[in-house]
Amino acid sequence: SPRVRVRVSPRVCASARVLTSASPSVTCTSLTLPLFLCPPTLLLCLLISVQSQNLVTDNVSVVEGDVATISCRVKNNDDSVIQLLNPNRQTIYFKDLRPLKDSRFQLVNFSDNELRVSLSNVSLSDEGRYVCQLYTDPPQEAYADITVLVPPDNPIMKSREDIVSEGNETEITCIATGSKPASTIRWMKGDKELQGKSEVQHTYDRMFTVISRLMLTVTREDDGIPVVCIVDHPAVKDLQAQKFLEVQYKPEVKIVVEFPEGLTREGENLELTCQAKGKPQPQQINWVKVDDDVPSHAVITGTDLLIENLNKSYNGTYRCVASNSVGESYDDYILYVYDSRAGEGTSPSVDHAVIGGVVAVVVFAMLCLLIVLGRYFARHKGTYFTHEAKGADDAADADTAIINAEGGHNNSDEKKEYYI
Ligand SMILES: *[C@@H]1O[C@H](CO)[C@@H](O)[C@H](O)[C@H]1NC(C)=O
Ligand SMILES: *[C@@H]1O[C@H](CO)[C@@H](O)[C@H](O)[C@H]1NC(C)=O
Ligand SMILES: *[C@@H]1O[C@H](CO)[C@@H](O)[C@H](O)[C@H]1NC(C)=O
Ligand SMILES: *[C@@H]1O[C@H](CO)[C@@H](O)[C@H](O)[C@H]1NC(C)=O
Ligand SMILES: *[C@@H]1O[C@H](CO)[C@@H](O)[C@H](O)[C@H]1NC(C)=O
Ligand SMILES: *[C@@H]1O[C@H](CO)[C@@H](O)[C@H](O)[C@H]1NC(C)=O
């Protein structure tokens, strides 16, 4: 918004002072009036401020090399002339005429209400306060500050060590040079934000270089995780650099029993394998027996330990030790040699139990079936009449039986027959 100078002198009345302090946009010119003229002074103040609302412009931020547009706008223009001045107060445009020789300035729009001018290929030297001027009485001015933004160069990331040992602290730096204003630098490890320490250095010509340092204590899980340095600046987007952490760590050791699957019995063989993983990969893997010697006939081939013909005297703790440049780790296997027949018969007894169970179930099922059948036939037991004739019983053959039976129908003797 426009500005009007305020000069409050001892001779300006008290009420004018109240007015100026309560609403800073309404101010008085340097009228040095006697006290009795106070009320008219107040009126004049208000009048000037209302009139001064007319001319407006905006500040401009522009990236070096881009185009800046300055717009001087007038409300309720009464044919007053507008002109645009550069920071040295040379006229760039007077209405739609350009007295200045710099052809980077071009007229974009000219009307009663606006003078819009573009400035291409902006450089740092174009920065400053441009003036829109309206030829009223008194003349009005509005100021457009042009700020030139210079993006930083691509950030450069450096780490103190290429490879860090787990548990050790390392330092990573990120440098964003030659920007205006200064950039801000953020850090990410994977998808987690980390806090670095930034230092801003001024360089030539109002430019800035920012160095951020990140101190990081690494774990083996950090191996292969990207660390990203993100540079935030109003003139650029998505400016970042990235580096993958390389962490070396002690071996992780694990003993696996290859043979036997069950108990370790006297006379049998034992085969163990040692699995070791580390960074760098351990070159040396050793088998030892704690507080004792490994049996003399044990065979060690690479990561494998083979003991044939187990003997109770081999009982003890067998240890696989793996080491790399970071350190040493081990895993233990406790050997306990059982009698050669130990555990025998335990599995057959399980089989017997299963067979016994099956037999019991079958017997039970058959019993149930019998009961059901019995109940069924009991319900169908009854008395039946047969038409077998009396006299057929004593017949010598079938024919005689039929003859004997002739007329014997009146015989009312009955016979009972049962289904069982
Ligand atoms: C323009 O920028 C200046 C500082 O450079 C500031 O004092 C002024 O208030 C700004 N004007 C507007 C309209 O934002
Ligand atoms: C100039 O501005 C006026 C009012 O803002 C608008 O109507 C007109 O189209 C503009 N002319 C150009 C060339 O941009
Ligand atoms: C932009 O300005 C620079 C100097 O500030 C000059 O070297 C360059 O040639 C200009 N580019 C164009 C396209 O005018
Ligand atoms: C076990 O070793 C002892 C000597 O250490 C030996 O006397 C014994 O015969 C061995 N037993 C078997 C079953 O080999
Ligand atoms: C980093 O780890 C190594 C082991 O690889 C150790 O020798 C060294 O002292 C550690 N450095 C620091 C600064 O802790
Ligand atoms: C080895 O373990 C067996 C158990 O099967 C035990 O009977 C024997 O005494 C142990 N021998 C030694 C030397 O500890």
From TrEMBL:
Chief localisation class: membrane
Every Ig-like domain range: 40-147, 152-246, 251-336
GO molecular function: signaling receptor binding
Pfam families: C2-set_2, Ig_3, V-set
Topology in the lipid bilayer: Single-pass type I membrane protein
Entry keywords, A to Z: Cell membrane, Disulfide bond, Glycoprotein, Immunoglobulin domain, Membrane, Phosphoprotein, Repeat, Signal, Synapse, Transmembrane, Transmembrane helix
Superkingdom of origin: Eukaryota
GO cellular component, one term: neuron projection
Ranges that cross the membrane: 353-373
Presence of keyword Disulfide bond: yes
Subcellular location: Cell membrane; Synapse
Assembly with partners or alone: Homodimer (via Ig-like V-type domain). Interacts with FARP1. Interacts (via Ig-like V-type domain) with CRTAM (via Ig-like V-type domain); the interaction competes with CRTAM homodimerization and CADM1 homodimerization. Interacts (via C-terminus) with EPB41L3/DAL1. The interaction with EPB41L3/DAL1 may act to anchor CADM1 to the actin cytoskeleton. Interacts (via C-terminus) with MPP2 (via PDZ domain). Interacts (via C-terminus) with MPP3 (via PDZ domain); this interaction connects CADM1 with DLG1. Interacts (via C-terminus) with PALS2 (via PDZ domain).
Family: Belongs to the nectin family.
Protein name: Cell adhesion molecule 1
Organism encoding this protein: Scleropages formosus (Asian bonytongue)
